[in-house]
Write a structure and sequence with these properties.
Its EC number is 3.4.21.89. It is a single-pass type II membrane protein. Keywords: Hydrolase, Membrane, Protease, Ribonucleoprotein, Ribosomal protein, Transferase, Transmembrane, Transmembrane helix. By secondary structure, this protein is of the alpha+beta class. It is built from three helices and 13 strands. The chain folds into two domains: about 35 residues; about 170 residues, Umud Fragment, subunit A (Ribbon), CATH 2.10.109.10. The chain is globular, with a radius of gyration of 23 Å.
């Protein structure tokens, strides 16, 4: 009976060994894929939500249907510079920016609605700086007076959480859907802050 017992133990050992190897390879491939499909944040325009050096997973399968207030990777300007911003205006929305006591007041009338909402994002009040021009010109950029503008059907209107230190749609205008690479709602580095990126923004009905 001894030889068969050793054979069985040897077979079980091989199975365990192969299982461990496959698990290791799958874990390694998962890490490589996550790093390959990720964005390394540069700059401070989305602080304090995400910081320079953070790495965010690019959910490219959601690029065609992002939701309001999703973080997205987008290519902007003639040079197609990659940026990380928050979607505030969806196609067909009417948007405008005024200021009250030095703090931004962003209003959005969703496409097909007669109700105008104020965007409540506590990050903005924490980060108000010197970029406080009203909005918007016809192309979505900041102007000299608050004027409502409609987001084109093929575009989004983006803002940074660091309001006073962000180059966003107030600088480069509407961003076309084709220039959005994916949604960035999951942080994978640093590991100490791994998980869903906080989303404090919401629409609040005007009083």
């Amino acid at each position: 009976m001894e030889p068969p017992l050793r054979t069985e133990r040897g077979s079980a050992g091989h199975v365990v060994g192969w299982t461990a190897l496959v698990a290791f390879l799958l874990a390694l491939l998962t890490i490589i894929a996550a790093l390959a499909f990720s964005v390394h944040v540069k700059g401070h325009s989305m602080e304090p939500t995400v910081h320079q050096g953070d790495r965010l997973l690019v959910q490219f399968w959601k690029r065609g249907d992002p939701r309001r207030f999703d973080l997205v990777e987008a290519q902007v300007g003639v040079a197609k510079t990659p940026v990380v911003k928050r979607i505030v205006g969806l196609p067909g929305d009417t948007v405008a920016v005024t200021f009250a006591k030095g703090e931004p007041v962003v209003t959005v009338t969703p496409a097909g609605s007669d109700t105008t909402y104020v965007v409540e994002n506590p990050r903005w009040t924490e980060q108000v700086g010197d970029r406080i021009a009203p909005c918007c010109n016809a192309d979505g950029t900041a102007g000299t007076a608050p004027t409502e503008v409609v987001v084109p059907a093929d575009s989004y209107w983006l803002l940074g959480d660091n309001w006073g230190g962000s180059d966003d749609s107030r600088t480069y205008g509407f961003v076309k859907k084709a220039d959005v690479g994916g949604v960035l709602n999951l942080r994978i580095q640093p590991l100490s802050r791994f998980g869903t990126v906080p989303n404090p923004a919401r629409l609040v009905a005007q009083n």
